[in-house]
Design brief:
By secondary structure, the chain is α/β, with parallel strands linked by helices. It has a single domain (7-266), classed as BirA Bifunctional Protein, domain 2. It is 36% helix and 26% strand. It contains eleven helices and eleven strands. An eight-stranded mixed sheet has the order 7-8-9-10-6-2-1-11, with helices on both faces. α1 crosses α10 (245-259).
Length: 268
């Protein structure tokens, strides 16, 4: 437990690898459960198969090498959040959903900064020095390079490379933000699933936990460090939340309507 805790978050213990559409539907469900009453939910999760996720507004045929993904058993899913293409596989994936404006502020940048600082506290517990990024170059902001080409403002860098890539959806006083924290380097496959639209794929600047620490990093060990950092930074306790059968049914409905649908994925 955190000493002098000032609040409590729900923690969705969801470490078993799951299909891509299910992972996105759970994050969507977390967002939908939020009400004006301040509430925050934290989740860490994994993927049963390598998955490309693209931002809500991206054109799939412009950014994803669909043929390569199909031939190599890589799923493709569209997020509810914005941002750029991400390859999810050997990583820690997180999501935070909240309606607590007093804690996170009322803007995307406010909440990005607070969440990044919480994760930086976890990185320090691993022995790593991370810092907040400045504004990304215009060619990244307005182009179609993958997420890990450049950090956006208030994302997290180590030694000039992005270590956490995140995206957010905000609606009134509530938001959901999820992000990718690579455990191992997979630059070549990231280049293979991406289409070189209007930038050079050699510009990918991905940091990984195993490279920075000089050793293999286990998912569970990394999650424990991040949980400790978040508890300390936000001065909160985490209350375990297990999905009920009814909640799983509701998530399955969201999956069928959105993330398991070609209409949603391709935005036809």
């Amino acid at each position: 437990m955190t000493e002098k805790a000032q609040g409590e978050w729900l923690y969705l213990d969801d470490g078993t690898p799951a299909p891509s559409a299910w992972n996105m539907a759970v994050d969507d469900y977390m967002f939908r459960t939020l009400t004006p009453q301040p509430r925050t939910i934290l989740r860490f999760y994994r993927w049963i198969r390598p998955t490309v996720s693209l931002g809500y507004s991206q054109r799939i045929h412009k950014v994803v090498n669909i043929d390569y993904c199909s031939l190599n058993g890589i799923d493709v899913v569209r997020r509810m959040t914005g941002g750029k293409l991400v390859l999810h596989d050997r990583e820690v994936t997180y999501s935070i959903a909240s309606s607590d404006e007093d804690l996170f502020g009322s803007s995307v940048l406010d909440s990005y900064r607070k969440i990044s600082e919480g994760f930086m506290c976890g990185l320090r517990k691993m022995g790593l020095h991370a810092y907040l990024a400045e504004k990304a170059p215009a060619k990244y902001i307005h182009g179609d390079l993958p997420c890990f080409s450049y950090p956006s403002r208030h994302e997290v860098e180590i030694s000039g490379r992005k270590i956490i890539g995140s995206a957010q959806k905000r609606e009134g006083g509530k938001f959901v933000q999820h992000g990718s924290i690579p455990l191992v380097e997979d630059d070549e496959r990231l280049r293979a699933v991406s289409l070189p639209a209007d930038g050079d794929l050699d510009e990918i600047r991905m940091a990984t936990l195993s490279h920075e620490l000089g050793k293999a990093v286990d998912f569970s060990w990394a999650v424990d460090k991040f949980k400790d950092g978040i508890r300390e930074y936000f001065k909160i306790n985490l209350k375990s939340w297990t999905l009920s059968p009814l909640e799983k049914e509701e998530i399955d409905t969201i999956l069928k309507e959105r993330y398991g649908s070609e209409k949603w994925t391709y935005l036809r």
